[in-house]
Amino acid sequence: DAMVIQNPRYQVTQFGKPVTLSCSQTLNHNVMYWYQQKSSQAPKLLFHYYDKDFNNEADTPDNFQSRRPNTSFCFLDIRSPGLGDAAMYLCATSRDFGGLGTEAFFGQGTRLTVV
Amino acid sequence: GENVEQHPSTLSVQEGDSAVIKCTYSDSASNYFPWYKQELGKGPQLIIDIRSNVGEKKDQRIAVTLNKTAKHFSLHITETQPEDSAVYFCAAIFSGGGADGLTFGKGTHLIIQP
């Protein structure tokens, strides 16, 4: 059974039109991450939450925002998508940062197309 | 910050042969090194990991080795099968608390030739 679920799997949005991607987890993990993966590249961390504490990577554009209303759900909001934002967006969770809780589990991703 | 280099970018092996993928990392504080397998159109799947207090770990046909002094770690797949074809990513992180997410290598496209 899927433990990190991303919806939708495929999303098409218009240039400049706000879009929201969602992620839910059944693992009750403290940490939730959002990664951006462009074609043939490695996943790149955008930001993460430890519980309700939000941590933004220094080079994440302001165009990208996130919300975590509760332990199970996390959302990625792209306020004004540009053509360069077309990518696979991956959500991941881990129980903790340290020790045995470091293992990160990924969802299947949402493929975003900007037209 | 951490920097992870991964080689080769593409690896083609005959079915039944072994495959080895190598990674180096820059931050000597990194102490957790997972390997992920990503099939086309899917999210990365954790296949094996190793911590810095261990030199080698094995799980059936998959093994990972770590050389802390040289700051490199490798993935070994023996008796390769067609379903092993995928992109493999190595990653590194300091898991001592307050850390950011994983730093990934650029990936290796493993092709198993029948």
Structural write-up:
The complex is a heterodimer of chains A (115) and B (114). Chain A has no helices and 11 strands. Chain A has strands spanning 4-7, 10-13, 19-25, 31-37, 44-50, 53-56, 64-67, 73-78, 87-94, 104-106, 110-114. Chain A is globular, with a radius of gyration of 13 Å. Helices cover 0% and strands 54% of the residues of chain B. Chain B has no helices and 11 strands. In chain B, strand 4 and strand 5 (45-51) form a beta hairpin. The model of chain B has no long low-confidence stretch (mean pLDDT 92).
What order do the SSEs of chain B take from the amino end to the carboxyl end, as H and E? Answer: EEEEEEEEEEE
Q: How many β-strand stretches of chain B?
A: 11
Shape of chain B: globular
What's the helical proportion of residues of chain A? under 10%
In what range is the share of β-strand residues of chain A?
over 45%
Low-confidence stretches of chain B: none
CA(first)-CA(last) distance of chain B: 41 Å
**Helical stretch tally of chain A:** 0
Largest interface (CB within 8 Å) is between: A-B, 27 and 24 residues
Q: Strand-residue fraction of chain B?
A: over 45%
Whole-angstrom Rg of chain B = 14 Å
Helices and strands in order, then pairings?
The complex is a heterodimer of chains A (115) and B (114).
Chain A: E1 4-7, E2 10-13, E3 19-25, E4 31-37, E5 44-50, E6 53-56, E7 64-67, E8 73-78, E9 87-94, E10 104-106, E11 110-114
Parallel strand pairs in A: 2-11
Antiparallel strand pairs in A: 1-3, 3-8, 4-5, 4-9, 5-6, 7-8, 9-10, 9-11
Chain B: E1 4-7, E2 10-14, E3 19-25, E4 32-38, E5 45-51, E6 56-59, E7 62-67, E8 72-77, E9 86-92, E10 103-104, E11 108-113
